[in-house]
Amino acid sequence: MIRKYQNELIVLLAFLFLAGAVLFELFQQHKLESAQENAFGTTIKLEDTSTLKKLWIGNKTISSRLKGVESFVGNSKVKTFKIERNHADIVLSGLSGSELNTVVGKYIASTPVQIKSLNIKRDGELYGLELKCIW
Amino acid sequence: MNFLTTNEKLLLVYRDMPYISEPRKYDLLLTPQFYIYKKESLPIKYGFQAKKLAPSILEELLGEGEYSYAVLPDGDDWSFYAYDMNKIESFLKNKRLDSHYINKIYFAQQSKDFFADPISVDDKNALLTIDDTVVMLPKTMVESQKFYPLDEDARPEKGIIPPQSRSSMISQKQSIAIAVLMSVLAIGYIVEGVGIKHSLSKIESEIEATKSKYPSLRDKPSMIINNIYNSAYKIDKRQRAIREKIKSISHLLGKGSKIDNLEISSNGYKGTISVEKNKLGDIQKLAKKNKIDAKLSGNLFSVKGSI
Questions:
Q1: How many CB atoms lie within 10 A of CB A32?
Q2: What 3-state class would DSSP assign to B41?
Q3: Number of folded domains in chain A?
Q4: Measured between CB atoms, which of A3, A18, A48 is closest to B185?
Q5: What is the extent of the structural domain holding A119?
Q6: How far apart are CA A65 and CA A67, in angstroms?
Q7: Rounded CA gap, B182 and B179, in Å?
Q8: The CATH number of domain B234-306, selected from 3.30.1360, 3.30.110, 2.40.50, 3.40.50
Q9: Does this complex have an ipTM over 0.90?
Q10: pLDDT (tens digit, 9 = 90+) per residue, B61-109?
Q11: Interface test with chain B among A40, A50, A126, A129, by most B beta carbons within 10 Å
């Protein structure tokens, strides 16, 4: 029987070989596409995660930056200045308008702390400020 | 053409041959009972040219049938053969040999030198070359009473691939051509696939290199990295919004406007701004421009919103 259809069998085997090769190539192509997608996604995600994490979570430069507030306004205007491992509780009073601008603009808004609450209250021409933040 | 086939056992084909007991491939050595032969001297150089002339040269000698032709060089002359493959196949089928067992065909005439001495075919008949032509004749008519057996020396140099067998839809030559073509294509696909595989491992090592740049994240499962990313992204978005709001509110402050109180948290903001009467219009415009929801009450602007 095999001998009778050996020509057809040769063609069939060659066809199976070709089909196998095509499937192999398609499978590799599919794997390549998902690997490229995955590589791109992984790279972007790692970069973004690392950048955002460094910026907002556990940033070790925050303490020293916040301490700049204390030295800027002077001890007399500092009611509370608690900086612990990753959070701060700061209460200032008697700030002039320009001091308030500097404290908020330079020390708070441009420092990557997570502002939990920021309260400002005017008393005559002077201002009081309360800041709770973490990092 | 012999590269497509190998030599198989030689089978002498004659009318009174016994039944074939061993079903296997054979090379047929046809006795003159199964072919028509004519030798011609023609000024022709190539076999394919001679083959075109075969039907007209043998026409007078042929009876009814569906003939195939073979032309072989014989010294300076050409040997023309006609044979009816259907008849040969059906004859062999009666002798219990299916057509797909036919490998090659030889004509006894091709081995005329071998048949110079009488070769025994069976009890009654012998093959002998007389006047340069191989004939089959009764042993009683052979002068010499010494008969030799048929052996491998009778195999001519060149065999003929039988015309397309009726049991097969495609010939061996066609099947091999198709198989070669498909195999070449398949090899092409495999080579391409292997190339892609190399690219894949390159990408994988690139991913590893990228991961090694972030040692704190490298060994973390992607789910945890996603969680870290999502939470950091959320923080980033909210804190940027808070800062944006502080910036917007600060645009409202200046000469003629002062903040009375302001509370900003991650949920929203609320506060009041005192404004001199002549600046009310300007502040209102600025609030609108900075998308701050401000409500005027006397000379006080109440600002309130979510972040």
A1: 17
A2: coil
A3: 2
A4: A18
A5: 62-134
A6: 5
A7: 5
A8: 3.30.1360
A9: no
A10: 888 888 999 999 988 899 999 999 999 999 999 999 988 889 899 999 9
A11: A50
